[in-house]
Every structure is written in C-alpha cells, then in structure tokens.
Amino acid sequence: xxxxxxxxxxxxxxxxxxxxxxxxxxxxxxxxxxxxxxxxxxxxxxxxxxxxxxxxxxxxxxxxxxxxxxxxxxxxxxxxxxxxxxxxxxxxxxxxxxxxxxxxxxxxxxxxxxxxxxxxxxxxxxxxxxxxxxxxxxxxxxxxxxxxxxxxxxxxxxxxxxxxxxxxxxxxxxxxxxxxxxxxxxxxxxxxxxxxxxxxxxxxxxxxxxxxxxxxxxxxxxxxxxxxxxxxxxxxxxxxxxxxxxxxxxxxxxxxxxxxxxxxxxxxxxxxxxxxxxxxxxxxxxxxxxxxxxxxxxxxxxxxxxxxxxxxxxxxxxxxxxxxxxxxxxxxxxxxxxxxxxxxxxxxxxxxxxxxxxxxxxxxxxxxxxxxxxxxxxxxxxxxxxxxxxxxxxxxxxxxxxxxxx
Length: 406
Hints:
Layout: E1 4-6, H1 11-14, H2 18-30, H3 33-49, H4 52-80, H5 82-106, H6 109-121, H7 126-138, H8 143-172, H9 177-194, H10 217-246, H11 253-272, E2 274-276, H12 280-295, H13 304-315, H14 318-332, H15 338-366, H16 369-388, H17 400-403
Antiparallel strand pairs: 1-2
C-alpha cells in the first residue's frame, strides 16, 4: 500500500453537482444520531440507575434490533424507493427515542426495552443509502473510492462532533437532552434526504424470490470482519466513558471518543486522495494489521492526555479499513442491490457494536474501565485473523454471475 499517487479525481469534482451536495448534506445531518445515541444512552441510563450493565443492555438491544432490520430496510429502499421507505422509518425511530426517555424517567423496564427495539428496528439506514446513491452515480470507476472516502470523512466528523455534543448537552442541560437533539437531527435530515428523489438509485422492482446476498461466500467473510470491527468500536466507546469516570472527569468521555475519530478522519482523507497500486486484498490485510497494532496502547496508558493520544493512534486505521470494506462489497453485490449489500455491512457492525458494548459494560462493572480496553484489543485480533484467512477476496472483482441476482 506504500506505492501510491495523488488521485486524478479529487473531492471537488465529485461535489460539483448541487444535487450531490444536497444529498450529502442531508445524509450528514440525518446520521449525526448514530454517533450520539450510544453515549447518550450510557449517560442517560447511568444517571438514573448508576448501572453500566443496564446501559450496555439497552444499547445492545438497540444495536441488535438495528442489525436485524437494516438489510431489510435497504432491500425495501432498493425495491420501492428510498424516500418512500424512509419517511415512516424516521418517524417510528423518533417514537422509539421518546419511549426510551419515558421508560428511564418512570423506571418502566418493559417500556425501556420495547422502545429500544423500536428505536433500533426503525433506525434510518442513511449511511448505506447515501453510499448506494454514490454507487449508482460513479460505481465501477476509481471515483467511487474517493466518494467513499468523502463519506468516511463525514462519518468521522460525525463521530468527532456527536459524542462531544451529546456529552456537553447531557451534562450541562439534562441527561435526556442528548436524545432530544439526536431526534431533531434525525427527523430533519432524514426527511430532507427522503425528499431528494432525483438522485435516488434505480428501483429493482418487487420480486417474489430473490436469492439472498449472503449466498456470496466472500461477502460472508467480509461480514465476519465487519462484526469484529463493530465490536472494537462498541467496546472502546463504553470503555472511554468508564475510563473518564474512573479518572474523575466524565465530561472528558466525549473528547476521548472524538480523538479516536480525529485519527480516523486524517487517515481516511489521506487514503481517499490517493490511488493505490496495491490490490484491495493487500490493502485489506495491511489496514487490519495497522488496526490491531494501533489498539494496543489503549491498554497501557493511565492518564487522560496520554489516553487522548492513544485514541488518536487507535483511530488511524479505522477509516481506511472501512473504505476498503465498502469497496470490496461494492465489487461483490449487484449494483441495483447496493443499499441491501451495504446494509448487511452495517448490520454486521451493529451486532459487533452490541456485543462490544455489552461485554465491555460487564467488564467495567466487574473490574474497571481500563480493563474494558482488553475487549477492544481482543476484537481487533479477531478482525486481523479474519483478514489473514481472506483468501476468497484475493482476486475480488464484480462477479458476472451475481448480476443475475438482480
């Protein structure tokens, strides 16, 4: 991956169209919630119950529900149109958020978890849908890597701003204020995105029996990797909150999570602005090695300033790795089912996030926040091992046989 040159197709070229800028902006606003909800849930639940285990269980419920629903919502969007599907999904998601706040305030456990299921099932899959619009626009060209780099950079900006925003609002106003802010952003951005019909991908049309994308062997392997990566991200978030609390400064949790995203943002932009001569399989392996190695410092540092540095280092491999994963998936699935394909990646990551949040929460309650980082490192090792056995992706290219799945 060291052999590269600056890409001919820069970011300005891709963002020249006003239609593109509008759907990118709406997608950015609408998915700000994805970086706020996890930490907002932890802060809200622990402020009332003082239980990281319960907070982790609620967060895991949201994530598992989201994982189960995301590919199906993506498939519906591919069939009937993103806007038509998004509108009811966004409103149902908002209803779930309100239910969580009521459940916490009243101590109604069944309402808390029922609302968590509703929130997750109806989590708007704006990330996959935005990438699907890019795939429909520049799929099969080198511009797609740059487009995915733009989306990766936006994701990192979201993860830089979102946790800090949620933490500051929750600590200075009310623990539930983070939920309200996320609700407003999701409804506003999601409905605006849904209204942009001109840039929607072509519809696949409703068919009775479509073969599952999971029949593609290489895709299944990528999803295992995405699951491990999700566990890295889920465990590190709750570990950062617990570590900051152990250090006597809960308000520093947001900045620590943001430092992780800053590292990812910098390397993501660097990756997307260059053309790499190495194959996707080679880049996949190198990014996985960098990810596993970059997580190790999290387990040894003891102070807040050093933890911020360690978080930056740990985040440096995240965006390039995710970009490579989405590039691989784009080559594996039929173009007309890209929302569904990217939705499967999101689902795998959500399951991993749920596992990471849950396990790290239990480790934190049993030991302390610093031990929870060992869960993060273990997940990074699993991701690396998956990449090492990824022989099926060695010569990845769009298989013509899969076009028949459309």
